[in-house]
Design goal:
Layout: H1 13-27, H2 30-40, E1 49-53, H3 59-68, E2 72-77, H4 80-89, E3 96-100, E4 113-119, H5 128-138, E5 139-150, H6 166-176, H7 182-192, E6 199-207, H8 212-227, H9 233-248, E7 254-264
Parallel strand pairs: 1-2, 1-4, 2-3, 4-5
Antiparallel strand pairs: 5-7, 6-7
Helix pairs in contact: 1-8, 2-3, 6-8, 8-9
This protein binds S-adenosylmethionine.
GO molecular function: S-adenosylmethionine-dependent methyltransferase activity
InterPro entries: Methyltransf_11 (IPR013216), Methyltransf_Superfamily (IPR050508), SAM-dependent_MTases_sf (IPR029063)
Protein name: Menaquinone biosynthesis methyltransferase UbiE
Length: about 270
């Protein structure tokens, strides 16, 4: 899939700003806050050494801070523009730092982390097996890797069979997600990478009345589709208009199935 996140370090600031705003829309939804409270609340708590892979502008980092209260947190991301936003956001927090790197090469020392978290990152990775190996290297024996992401192949905005707006969601998946099936493969991949059998939890996420996140996701998706030549700008605008019209009329429905796989490195 031509996921633009595969070239995230080369994206202009306008794209990074749209991503940052969309991440804020998602994390501020009370349903997503409940989901984060559940999966992060199961991880080792206060004082832990935490590495966040793909921290972006720090939206998910806020949730990690709230629910884990780490002794130390290092955020890693390949997009300098997003890292700059995260650094500014947490400038007053001495226990936090942010570094340029990626899921396969973090540049961090081995066996220093109690917890590694990746919040909606693995679906964008070209080599998730190498990312699992790097996460295992970062963890102390007994440490936990938590991978949270969408089972994006099930995304729907359709109100009936053949709903043309579903094509906008399919286009969004094609241009913003590298592997919409990754969460189905990860439990097996985690075991193959040397983790104990993961504990998996699923979370339905439905937006209707105030669908700020799915609306912004689709707007970014069809904009990327037009930029990639998948469709004309006129069609992308039509998709954005139809989405906005459904929201305005109170007829919008969007659903994403999220999941968390949390696996322990053997002690
Ligand atoms: C959907 S955003 C999620 C950001 C953040 N975790 C959040 O939920 O607010 C995906 C993030 O993964 C980062 N990313 C993309 N490719 C990556 C890679 N190879 N390794 C680590 N992070 C990557 C992007 O820069 C972006 O910040």
């Amino acid at each position: 899939m031509p996921d633009l996140y595969l070239q995230i370090a080369d994206q202009p600031d306008s794209v990074l700003e749209a991503i940052a705003a969309s991440m804020e829309d998602r994390i501020s939804d009370p349903a997503m806050q409940e989901i984060c409270a559940d999966y992060l609340g199961r991880l080792p708590g206060p004082g832990a050494e935490v590495v966040e892979i793909g921290c972006g502008n720090g939206s998910s980092t806020e949730m990690i801070l709230r629910h884990l209260r780490p002794g130390r947190l290092v955020g890693i991301d390949p997009a300098e523009g997003l890292l700059a936003r995260a650094r500014k956001r947490f400038a007053a927090r001495d226990e936090m730092s942010f570094a340029s790197g990626n899921a396969v090469q973090t540049g961090l020392p081995g066996e220093g982390a109690d917890v590694v978290v990746a919040h909606t990152v693995y679906s964008h990775l070209a080599d998730p097996a190498a990312a699992l190996a790097e996460a295992r290297r970062l963890l102390r024996p007994g440490g936990i890797l938590a991978v949270f992401d969408g089972d994006y192949a099930t995304n729907t905005v359709a109100l009936f069979d053949g709903d043309p707006l579903q094509a906008a969601m399919v286009s969004t998946q094609r241009n913003l997600i590298h592997d919409p099936y990754i969460m189905r493969h990860l439990p097996g991949m985690m075991r193959e990478a040397g983790f104990e059998a993961p504990e998996s939890r699923a979370y339905g996420f439905v937006q209707t009345e105030r669908p700020a996140y799915i609306q912004s996701l689709m707007a970014r998706g069809v904009t990327a589709a037009a930029a990639a030549g998948d469709c004309s700008e006129a069609l992308a605008q039509g998709f954005r208009d139809e989405t906005d019209a459904r929201v305005e009329a109170g007829r919008f429905y969007g659903a994403i199935l999220f999941a968390c796989h949390a696996a322990r490195k053997p002690a």
